[in-house]
Amino acid sequence: MTEAIAAAFFEELAAAGYARLSLEAVAKRAGAGKAAIYRRWTSKLDMTVDLVSAVAVNASGAADTGTLRGDVLAFLTEVADALNEPLAARIIPDLIAEGGRTPELAEALFAAVRDTRRSRATQLLERAVARGELPADVDREIALDLLAGPLYWRLAVVHTPTAPDHLDRLTDMLLAAFRA
Fold first, then answer.
1. Could you tell me if 126 and 157 are in contact, meaning their C-beta atoms sit under 8 angstroms apart?
2. What is the total count of domains within the chain?
3. Are residues 103 and 154 in the same domain?
4. Which of 53, 62, 152, 155 could form a disulfide with 83 if both were Cys (CB 3.0 to 4.6 A apart)?
Protein backbone atom coordinates (compact mmCIF):
# COMPACT_ATOMS: atom_id res chain seq x y z
CA MET A 1 0.00 0.00 0.00
CA THR A 2 2.86 2.41 0.75
CA GLU A 3 4.09 2.15 -2.86
CA ALA A 4 0.60 2.98 -4.13
CA ILE A 5 0.40 5.94 -1.77
CA ALA A 6 3.84 7.16 -2.83
CA ALA A 7 2.92 6.87 -6.52
CA ALA A 8 -0.35 8.70 -5.89
CA PHE A 9 1.51 11.39 -3.95
CA PHE A 10 3.92 12.10 -6.80
CA GLU A 11 1.13 12.09 -9.39
CA GLU A 12 -0.94 14.48 -7.26
CA LEU A 13 2.05 16.73 -6.54
CA ALA A 14 2.83 16.94 -10.26
CA ALA A 15 -0.80 17.65 -11.13
CA ALA A 16 -1.76 20.06 -8.35
CA GLY A 17 1.53 21.49 -7.11
CA TYR A 18 2.55 21.73 -3.48
CA ALA A 19 0.32 24.70 -2.66
CA ARG A 20 -2.86 22.82 -3.66
CA LEU A 21 -1.71 19.36 -2.54
CA SER A 22 -3.87 17.71 0.09
CA LEU A 23 -3.49 14.43 1.92
CA GLU A 24 -7.14 13.72 1.15
CA ALA A 25 -6.50 14.02 -2.59
CA VAL A 26 -3.51 11.68 -2.30
CA ALA A 27 -5.63 9.14 -0.38
CA LYS A 28 -8.38 9.32 -3.00
CA ARG A 29 -5.91 8.91 -5.88
CA ALA A 30 -4.30 5.95 -4.10
CA GLY A 31 -7.63 4.35 -3.28
CA ALA A 32 -6.65 4.41 0.39
CA GLY A 33 -8.40 5.68 3.47
CA LYS A 34 -7.34 9.01 4.93
CA ALA A 35 -6.50 7.21 8.17
CA ALA A 36 -3.80 5.20 6.38
CA ILE A 37 -2.18 8.45 5.28
CA TYR A 38 -2.51 10.26 8.60
CA ARG A 39 -1.05 7.31 10.52
CA ARG A 40 2.18 7.76 8.64
CA TRP A 41 2.26 11.50 7.89
CA THR A 42 0.70 14.23 9.99
CA SER A 43 0.87 16.92 7.30
CA LYS A 44 1.59 17.48 3.64
CA LEU A 45 4.96 18.92 4.68
CA ASP A 46 5.87 15.67 6.46
CA MET A 47 4.69 13.59 3.52
CA THR A 48 6.50 15.74 0.99
CA VAL A 49 9.81 15.77 2.82
CA ASP A 50 9.65 12.03 3.54
CA LEU A 51 8.76 10.88 0.03
CA VAL A 52 10.74 13.45 -1.96
CA SER A 53 13.87 12.93 0.11
CA ALA A 54 13.60 9.14 -0.16
CA VAL A 55 13.57 9.36 -3.95
CA ALA A 56 16.08 12.19 -4.30
CA VAL A 57 18.61 10.79 -1.87
CA ASN A 58 18.36 7.24 -3.23
CA ALA A 59 18.97 8.63 -6.72
CA SER A 60 22.33 10.09 -5.68
CA GLY A 61 24.65 7.17 -5.28
CA ALA A 62 27.84 9.07 -6.09
CA ALA A 63 29.22 5.94 -7.73
CA ASP A 64 32.87 5.07 -7.18
CA THR A 65 34.12 4.11 -10.64
CA GLY A 66 37.79 4.43 -9.73
CA THR A 67 38.39 7.67 -11.64
CA LEU A 68 37.25 11.25 -11.25
CA ARG A 69 36.05 11.32 -14.85
CA GLY A 70 34.03 8.14 -14.37
CA ASP A 71 32.56 9.39 -11.09
CA VAL A 72 31.58 12.77 -12.57
CA LEU A 73 30.04 11.14 -15.65
CA ALA A 74 28.09 8.69 -13.46
CA PHE A 75 26.89 11.55 -11.26
CA LEU A 76 25.78 13.62 -14.26
CA THR A 77 24.04 10.61 -15.79
CA GLU A 78 22.06 10.07 -12.56
CA VAL A 79 21.10 13.75 -12.44
CA ALA A 80 20.09 13.81 -16.12
CA ASP A 81 18.01 10.65 -15.74
CA ALA A 82 16.23 12.15 -12.73
CA LEU A 83 15.62 15.53 -14.35
CA ASN A 84 14.32 13.91 -17.53
CA GLU A 85 11.74 11.91 -15.58
CA PRO A 86 8.38 13.53 -16.55
CA LEU A 87 7.01 13.76 -13.00
CA ALA A 88 10.29 15.14 -11.65
CA ALA A 89 10.40 17.72 -14.43
CA ARG A 90 7.09 19.10 -13.14
CA ILE A 91 7.67 18.60 -9.41
CA ILE A 92 11.20 19.98 -8.90
CA PRO A 93 10.58 23.51 -10.23
CA ASP A 94 7.31 23.69 -8.25
CA LEU A 95 9.02 22.67 -5.01
CA ILE A 96 11.81 25.19 -5.54
CA ALA A 97 9.31 27.97 -6.20
CA GLU A 98 7.15 26.92 -3.25
CA GLY A 99 10.25 26.85 -1.05
CA GLY A 100 10.58 30.57 -1.71
CA ARG A 101 7.08 31.11 -0.34
CA THR A 102 7.16 28.48 2.40
CA PRO A 103 10.38 28.71 4.43
CA GLU A 104 9.62 25.59 6.49
CA LEU A 105 9.36 23.55 3.27
CA ALA A 106 12.64 24.97 1.99
CA GLU A 107 14.44 24.33 5.27
CA ALA A 108 13.13 20.77 5.54
CA LEU A 109 14.05 19.91 1.94
CA PHE A 110 17.47 21.55 2.27
CA ALA A 111 18.23 19.43 5.31
CA ALA A 112 16.83 16.20 3.88
CA VAL A 113 17.82 16.50 0.22
CA ARG A 114 20.34 19.23 -0.56
CA ASP A 115 22.64 18.60 2.38
CA THR A 116 22.59 14.82 1.93
CA ARG A 117 23.21 15.03 -1.81
CA ARG A 118 26.04 17.54 -1.34
CA SER A 119 27.61 15.31 1.28
CA ARG A 120 27.59 12.38 -1.13
CA ALA A 121 28.99 14.51 -3.94
CA THR A 122 31.73 15.71 -1.58
CA GLN A 123 32.80 12.07 -1.24
CA LEU A 124 33.32 12.04 -5.02
CA LEU A 125 35.71 14.99 -4.67
CA GLU A 126 37.46 13.52 -1.62
CA ARG A 127 38.13 10.26 -3.48
CA ALA A 128 39.65 12.25 -6.36
CA VAL A 129 41.90 14.15 -3.94
CA ALA A 130 42.98 10.88 -2.30
CA ARG A 131 43.82 9.40 -5.74
CA GLY A 132 45.81 12.53 -6.65
CA GLU A 133 43.40 13.52 -9.44
CA LEU A 134 42.54 16.83 -7.77
CA PRO A 135 44.71 19.09 -5.63
CA ALA A 136 44.05 18.94 -1.89
CA ASP A 137 43.09 22.63 -1.90
CA VAL A 138 40.36 22.27 -4.54
CA ASP A 139 37.52 24.65 -3.67
CA ARG A 140 34.93 22.04 -2.74
CA GLU A 141 32.00 24.45 -2.43
CA ILE A 142 32.48 25.87 -5.92
CA ALA A 143 33.19 22.41 -7.33
CA LEU A 144 29.91 21.13 -5.86
CA ASP A 145 28.01 24.07 -7.35
CA LEU A 146 29.62 23.45 -10.74
CA LEU A 147 28.96 19.73 -10.58
CA ALA A 148 25.18 20.06 -10.50
CA GLY A 149 24.52 23.58 -11.73
CA PRO A 150 25.05 23.51 -15.50
CA LEU A 151 23.02 20.35 -16.10
CA TYR A 152 20.25 21.46 -13.77
CA TRP A 153 20.10 24.83 -15.53
CA ARG A 154 19.89 23.23 -18.97
CA LEU A 155 17.30 20.55 -18.17
CA ALA A 156 15.17 22.04 -15.38
CA VAL A 157 15.30 25.77 -15.99
CA VAL A 158 15.67 26.44 -19.71
CA HIS A 159 14.40 22.98 -20.81
CA THR A 160 16.99 22.54 -23.53
CA PRO A 161 17.54 19.00 -24.79
CA THR A 162 21.04 17.59 -24.73
CA ALA A 163 23.02 16.08 -27.58
CA PRO A 164 24.13 12.46 -27.17
CA ASP A 165 27.66 13.57 -26.25
CA HIS A 166 26.58 16.40 -23.94
CA LEU A 167 27.38 14.64 -20.67
CA ASP A 168 30.83 13.63 -21.93
CA ARG A 169 31.61 17.19 -23.01
CA LEU A 170 30.24 18.61 -19.76
CA THR A 171 32.31 16.12 -17.77
CA ASP A 172 35.49 17.21 -19.55
CA MET A 173 34.73 20.91 -18.93
CA LEU A 174 33.99 20.25 -15.26
CA LEU A 175 37.26 18.36 -14.83
CA ALA A 176 39.16 21.26 -16.38
CA ALA A 177 37.39 23.70 -14.05
CA PHE A 178 38.03 21.57 -10.96
CA ARG A 179 41.74 21.43 -11.77
CA ALA A 180 42.05 25.16 -12.58
1. no
2. 2
3. yes
4. 155
